[in-house]
Specification:
The protein is α+β, with helices and mostly antiparallel strands. 29% of the residues lie in helices and 24% in strands. Strands 1, 2, 3, 4, 5, 6, 7, 8, 9, 10, 11, 12 and 13 form a 13-stranded mixed beta sheet that branches. A hairpin with a 2-residue loop joins strand 6 and strand 7. Helix 2 crosses helix 4, helix 3 crosses helix 5 and helix 14 crosses helix 15.
Length: 433
């Protein structure tokens, strides 16, 4: 964890208890899952393999870990109990990396890996394995030579990372790891169907969900159809609810119902609610996960929610103040507080005293032209959607409006921002000849 946050050494996590937010133990850590990268770049720590009381082993993403301290792991409480299956690009730390023989890059000397150190990258909430604790000297079956032990940077050892010029999907993924989801989606779109399926199968659920949201409908349906049904349901759960509902709505009725039956009940209910609205209406475009605050919440509370790096800039632009319940559909919607207003008032100020309650919310049946006119008139990047009972149903963001107003083939255009204009359209037959 850069910037003063502590580093954890993975050996300290072996067998420690995993708890939900209520303090109930859900299992124990049995391994850690990392994804290697090209060259000497530190690998990403994706999550933990947790063994439940039933002896089933499941995958717990690091994004669902709220703290690791005092010999325990605390989770958000949201667990997917499907059995863990290792993917081609993934490596198990205890099972594959510890006790491995590697070389020091400077001297070429062989050393044994005893432990790995990981830190969280605060800007993106990603974990990296950036330190290696090694011992010099050989370890044999009948004798152990005790040599000097030292901790080195990941880049100071060789024998871990992927080869630069490999042809497998994992090497391709490592090459494109730094791409934004929209750019990686463009890469996938221009791959062959076989190669696209290989890369999609190797991506972790959250990354694949982000990429699917940026792909044309045909590519989304094709990729989803080639995944195992259980994994397809996991990926749909990881997508933004409005994007997942749009994708489900495009599937044949039988496939849609089968996937819904495999999803968590709360997620499936949310999908059904979104699909009950016409596609090009506020109800069909909205996300059901805006920032909802109670009237007695403070500016400090609201800013803590806004800081969540998983939120899009549009969703983080304002918070919606409602009476309980806090989940959509909420209790009575009272008004919105804009992010800039939060920055101008003391932390102890109640959000209920800062409401912009003059702005009329959108009706869930409002059509696309009405929504677009609303955004243009009031210079908004997000707008609340409220039903006839006064409950907040969700929020429409400007990116969702643009997605539905641009031409169907807009994703085919490659933008070169340094040139100030889109690149020329590719000639037919340029790919897959």
């Amino acid at each position: 964890m850069a910037g003063g946050t502590p580093r954890i050494f993975v050996s300290h996590l072996a067998g420690i208890a995993v708890f939900d937010p209520n303090g109930d133990q859900v299992g124990r850590v049995r391994d850690l899952v990392v994804i290697l990268r090209v060259g000497r770049k530190p690998p990403r720590l994706l999550g933990l393999v947790v063994e439940l009381s039933t002896r089933r082993r499941i995958f717990l993403p690091m994004t669902r870990v709220t703290s690791i301290e005092s010999g325990q792991v605390i989770t958000t409480g949201v667990l997917n109990v499907r059995r863990f299956e290792q993917r081609p690009t993934e490596r198990l730390v205890f099972g594959e990396l510890l006790d491995r023989r590697v070389r020091l890059a400077d001297t070429g000397e062989e050393v044994t890996v005893l432990d790995l150190g990981a830190q969280q990258r605060s800007a993106r909430r990603e974990w990296e394995v950036d330190r290696v604790f090694v011992r010099k000297g050989r370890t044999g079956t009948f004798r152990r030579t005790r040599g000097e032990s030292l901790t080195v940077e990941w880049s100071q050892v060789t024998g871990f990372s992927l080869e630069e010029h490999g042809q497998g999907a994992e090497s391709l993924l490592a090459t494109f790891e730094q791409l934004r989801p929209a750019d990686l989606a463009n890469v996938l779109h221009h791959l062959s169907a076989k190669r696209r399926a290989e890369v999609a199968a190797a991506l972790d659920d959250d990354r694949l969900a982000d990429v699917l949201e940026e792909l044309p409908e045909d590519d989304q349906i094709e990729i989803l159809g080639k995944l195992k049904e259980e994994r397809a349901a996991d990926v749909l759960e990881a997508m933004d609810p409005d994007d997942a509902a749009d994708l489900l709505a495009d599937l044949p009725e039988e496939d849609k119902e089968r996937l819904l039956s495999l999803m968590q009940p709360a997620d499936a209910a949310e999908m059904r609610r979104l699909m009950s609205y016409e596609e090009h209406t506020a109800g069909g475009l909205m996300t059901t996960e805006p920032i909802v605050m109670r009237p007695d919440s403070t500016v400090a509370d609201a800013l803590a929610r806004v800081r969540n790096p998983d939120l899009s800039p549009a969703l983080a632009a304002q918070v919606y103040v409602c009476r309980p319940p806090d989940e959509t559909p909420t209790g009575k919607y009272l008004g919105a507080v804009h992010f800039q207003r939060l920055l101008r008032d003391p932390p102890y100020t109640l959000v209920s005293s800062l409401l912009d309650d003059d702005l009329q919310p959108l009706d869930p049946e409002a059509t696309l032209p009405i929504i677009a006119g609303f955004f243009a008139t009031y210079d908004m990047v997000a707008a609340p959607v409220v039903d006839e009972t006064g409950s907040l149903l969700g929020a429409v963001t400007v990116d969702d409006v643009l997605d539905h107003m641009l031409p169907d083939d807009w994703r085919e255009t490659e933008f070169h921002l340094d040139e100030g204009e889109p690149a020329p359209e590719k000639e037919a037959g340029a790919h897959g000849a």
